[in-house]
Amino acid sequence: MIARSSRNLCRLLEEVGPVDAVGIEERVAKYATRSIKKDSKLFALRLAVTMVDLTTLEGKDTPGKVASLCRKALCPHDAPDIPQVAAVCVYPSMVKHAARHVKGTPVRIASVATAFPSGQAPLKTRLAEVRQAVADGADEIDMVINRGAFLEGELARVQDEIAAVVEACGDAILKVILETSELETYDHIRAASFLAMRVIRPGDFIKTSTGKTSSNATLGNNQVMLDAIRDHFLATGVEIAMKPAGGIRTAKQAIQFLIAVKETLGDHWLNNRRYRFGASSLLNDLLRQLETQRTGAYQAPWTFSEDSGAY
Predict the structure, then answer these.
(1) pTM confidence score
(2) Which residues are catalytic?
(3) What is the pLDDT of residues 201-242, one digit of tens each?
(4) For 79, phi and psi rounded to 5 degrees?
(5) What is the total count of domains within the chain?
(6) Distance, CA of 231 to chain centre
(7) CA Rg, the chain, in Å?
(8) Host domain of residue 27
(9) 133-155 per-position pLDDT tens digit
């Protein structure tokens, strides 16, 4: 069985092609050398705010904390030119509380599901969690794949489970979390991206990480997944969205990720329907940078509320 499973994964790796790891690292290193200033920087900062999935995923989450998160999502800062974020992201048990505050607004409700972050629960249980989150008001579901099954080469099982979650989502958008740090190599990240993209719908997302491991979103794994989205689009015409999550804490980092999107997929992907940041601490740094651009004075960290939880 192990030999057969390994052959399955090897066949997929051969089919989608290898990743030039050195080339990826050289390419993403150049993103840090791009000079974005004045109006272009303001545009990028505001755009990044609109792409944030403002998140709290802690065992001590309460309805009150979710209410604070929603208030910040709807009004990140009192300056009139600061846009709302894309979504609030919470555990399934908190969806109904988030719905009281943002349902009917442009801010969407995202919920992690499928036994997040491990994915180690019976499929029946995972699907029931998805259906309940959608019934309670979730507009988007962030699921985790079974990384063990993928690495063992049980590719049909992984795809069948993703397809079952797609069905359970109904009209809700699905974001498929690969957990890139546990996939171990760029080749595996590319292969898992294609495995998911062949099952999900146009407008659904592939996502780097849960934010719960030691290594999360990097420019490198983000680039591998953007390249996979581009190649899949060129082959099929299907537009898949992307969400890096975890470890993106500064406006400078966010702008580098946006440069990667523009240079790989083009302006068509530079909106929150096709690109998101799974982050919370990032929002405050974006706000600080926007205020600095507006006033000329760098803002202290305590200028902005800390209503959001760490991701």
Answers:
(1) 0.93
(2) 142, 207, 243
(3) 999 999 999 988 878 899 999 999 999 999 999 999 999 999
(4) -70, 135
(5) 1
(6) 19
(7) 19
(8) 2-303
(9) 999 999 999 999 999 999 999 99
